[in-house]
Write a structure and sequence with these properties.
Layout lengths: L1 H8 L8 H9 L9 H11 L11 H12 L11 H31 L9 H7 L13 H17 L7 H43 L4 E5 L2 E5 L3 H44 L5 H12 L30
Antiparallel strand pairs: 1-2
Length: 317
Amino acid sequence: MIERAVDRIKVRTTRGALPAGIAFALLMPSCASTSNSGVAVASIGRGLSAHTDSVPQGAEACALHEAIAHTPGTPDKPLSETCAKAVNSDLLWRRAMVVLAAYSQKLEAVAAGAKPETSGQLEAALTGVKGNDWIEAEPGQEQAARDAVAALVNQMATKSEKADLDKTIKDAAPHVKTVCTGLGAYLDEQVKKFEEIGTDLGKKRAAKSDRRCTTLDTRTICVSESVLDRVVYALSFGDLARQQANHLDARDNVAMFCAAHAKLEAAAGSGTTGKDETYGTIVDAVKGVPRAELRSQPAAPAAEEPKDTPTDSGKKK
């Protein structure tokens, strides 16, 4: 169900095209019939659904961590309850991104002057969220996010006599803020986990403490690392790097939307959503969000000059 909801809500843009879409929205000229500030924030939020194909992957991170922590020679154990709960957590936060994207579609429609009887109702239905207990959630941020998601969908589905932009923003603001807080923290947690797993995997490979060994005539015989072992490590290394990058990308885009929406909320409270100053404030908020930076690889050690190198005259230096 979640996958179907994601596919229906998803904006047909690639992740690489998302920054270009944001830049386009933030550079749009003023137009009297629309609120450029509302449209700009909505354009960022709509792109969040593009990440749901690949993030979050907390369950995979948990399973990988337990696999690497396993002690060679000891009996295998089933996955812990923590990993089982992570499956549900992934579903919750993935749906939360879908709902933020759906709300952004309503926000864009209202900002552009859409009819009140149609704004947000279809988007709410496509999210698949029904009732306050639409999914099990752990106490704390997950329960708060689950309730906020349900409240946001209910607001979108409720018919409004007047498609007032400020009212739409103010009504949604507390729920958006709750989801933003929990979602950003969860994605950041997965970024750190995948980084740790990659580091631990490299250490395990270098230590060679889990070699395949047996005993023959009181002698211990171990099999050296094969080409296939190296290939498996290479694939794992690349996949972990990709997972970390996907979560970083999603985390940063969530942070941009949340920062921009907070400025839009402040403008709605003061009745200045249509002002050019508000548009500029939103642009500054997006620019101010810290972005993930690629880490530079350490420089290779300088090669030592060979000793006793013959000179042109045949003599040694």
